[in-house]
Structure formats: structure tokens, C-alpha cells
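## retry 2 of 3
previous attempt timed out at serialization; input unchanged, resubmitting
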Amino acid sequence: MRRYLDIHGDEHERPADAEVRWRIGGYGVIVRDGRLLMVETVLPSRWRWDLPGGGIRLEPEETILEGITREVHEETGYRFRPDASTLVLVDDTCFRPPSGQYWRMLTFAVRGDVDAAPDPHWWQPGEEIARVAWIDPATLRPDDILRAHRRLLGKLGLIERDDR
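## retry succeeded, writing output
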């Protein structure tokens, strides 16, 4: 693949000699009383809310479920219990961030549950997360969340389906 999308959805053709970096990401889908556990990101972007999750560590090696469990706790303070039978590949994306690098990203998601309350010893990572909240999916507008997350939530029937 040589066509890479930037943060605005515009296509870029990767030069043949440009390095491609790999990223494996994973996100938890947690629903309680009809609301989604989401994080508001600090990073400037076109979306406001993310599913909790992030990069799976390749060194030291962790499984996708271990990485998602760790990321959900790091970002929200909740202890996550994934349902392994729901693990899905959400997206295989070629991405070009503002830095100009080229990334091939595999994104996974898994449904699960969390404890009733966050870990009392958790501290909120202010450099990444502005806040953690339970969001009614019906209130999410298309530009409020990342396109891959929007497609996933549509496939799960949590929001109106968007196959763009």
C-alpha cells in the first residue's frame, strides 16, 4: 500500500524509499447502563472522545488483550476484564501524521466490563487525558470520535452505522 491518509482524511502517496513504521493498537469497549466509558484527549485533533486504549507494547512483548487491559487502566483508572471471545480487528490503516512519517496501524477492540469504581490509587495522566466520562452514544456527533471508533461502534449497534 502506498496511499496514506492524514488526520484530515486527505491521501498522500508514500515515496518508495520512505520508511514505514508499525503500530498495533487496542481499545476497550465498555458499556454500562447504556453509556460508553470514554476519554477526552488532550491532543489537538478533529475528534474529542476516544475509546480507552492505545499502543500494544512490542518490547516487552504483551498480548493484545494484556495491552488493552493495561491501557484501559492507565487511561481511566478502571480495572478492565475483557471478553476474549469479542476481540476483533477493527482497522488496518495507512496513516501519515503531521510529523510526515508513514505508519501502518492495526487496530483491535474488545468488549468487556470494569469494576464499579476506579482504582483509588490511580492518577490521571494529564499529558494525554483531559477527563474520563460515561457518554451516551446517542449524543456523539461524527466529528466527536475517531473514524475507526465510529465504524466499530456502528458495527456493534451502539451508534448509527457509518461505513465511510
